[in-house]
Design a protein that fits this description.
Structural class: mainly alpha
Distance between the termini: 40 Å
Number of domains: 1
Number of strands: 0
Low-confidence stretches: none
Helix content: over 70%
Largest sheet: none
Order of helices and strands: HHHH
Shape: globular
């Protein structure tokens, strides 16, 4: 399994700050695991209905990082970008 690169993180997630990229790379996950975590975040209910277990391990950690980033982005939007 090859370590994720900055370019791969940006390819999967789009525009991401450097701190988040560093956090994601530090997990040691693959591009496939990052894509799976991103899918979990966007579609957790449909994935659970197909009988897949909740994300765990590296994918679970990536879900936590991405969820935190999403919450931060939403808070920033609610505050008017300040």
């Amino acid at each position: 399994m090859a370590a994720l690169t900055r370019d791969e993180v940006v390819t999967v997630l789009g525009r991401v700050d450097d701190f988040t990229i560093a956090e994601i790379i530090a997990v040691g996950a693959s591009r496939e695991e990052l894509a799976e975590a991103n899918a979990w975040l966007a579609n957790d209910e449909p994935l659970m209905k197909t009988g897949r277990p909740r994300a765990s391990g590296r994918v679970g950690r990536l879900v936590e990082i991405l969820a935190s980033r999403q919450e931060d982005d939403e808070s920033l939007l609610e505050s008017g970008g300040r």
